[in-house]
Specification:
about 180 residues; mainly beta; OB fold (Dihydrolipoamide Acetyltransferase, E2P); five-stranded mixed barrel; 2 helices; 8 strands; about 10% helix; globular
Length: about 180
């Protein structure tokens, strides 16, 4: 029989993430999220239920979450359930389930962030502007470790500019597709 342990959650942080380091130097961010469920009862009354979930993010993912997220911010988490056990002060064995982050995505208050903040000349977002989208599936978030939303020069559409010797010739784009009426999309 195959085993499968996968959790996908969208919720708001219930507290600021707490960053700590293991003795070997690995970063661990611990935080909680609240996931709301709304429904109507049989008599038409609106009901709401809230589920509070403990979450741990390891390594660079944990550092990025601590750097950019705080209490109340929405986040999408993909991960796995893990049982943690410890001995309480009263000597009793305690256990709880925690979601261990395998990937995440920062969200706007209205859902996934599709386009980042308005850009100033040169394609850079305004200084101190909103935090950008970060999706981490073992990858580093954009600008991670450099402060919020810093990076190399950006060209059209906010994409990183290529060095002059590697830039594509945008004048050829019209020749490939003919006139603007013949573009296949």
């Amino acid at each position: 029989m195959a085993n499968f342990n996968r959790v996908i959650l969208v919720g708001n942080l219930t507290r600021d993430p707490q960053l700590r380091y293991t003795p070997s130097g690995t970063a661990v961010a611990d935080f909680g999220i609240a996931v709301n469920r709304q429904w109507k009862s049989q008599d038409g009354e609106s009901k709401e239920d809230v589920c509070f979930i403990d979450v741990s993010a390891w390594g660079r993912q944990g550092e990025v979450i601590c750097e950019y997220k705080s209490k109340g911010d929405p986040i999408l988490i993909e991960g796995r359930l893990q049982m943690q056990s410890w001995q309480g002060q009263d000597g009793q064995k305690r256990t709880k389930h925690v979601v261990v982050v395998e990937s995440f995505q920062f969200l706007d208050r209205g859902g996934p962030r599709r386009e980042s903040a308005p850009r100033e000349e040169g394609g850079q977002p305004p200084e101190g502007g909103p935090r950008g989208e970060a999706s981490a599936r073992g990858e580093r978030a954009q600008g991670a470790g450099k402060g919020p939303r810093q990076g190399g020069p950006r060209g059209e559409g906010g994409r990183p500019q290529q060095p002059p010797d590697k830039q594509e010739d945008s004048a050829d784009d019209g020749d490939r597709f003919g006139s603007g009426d013949d573009i296949p999309f």
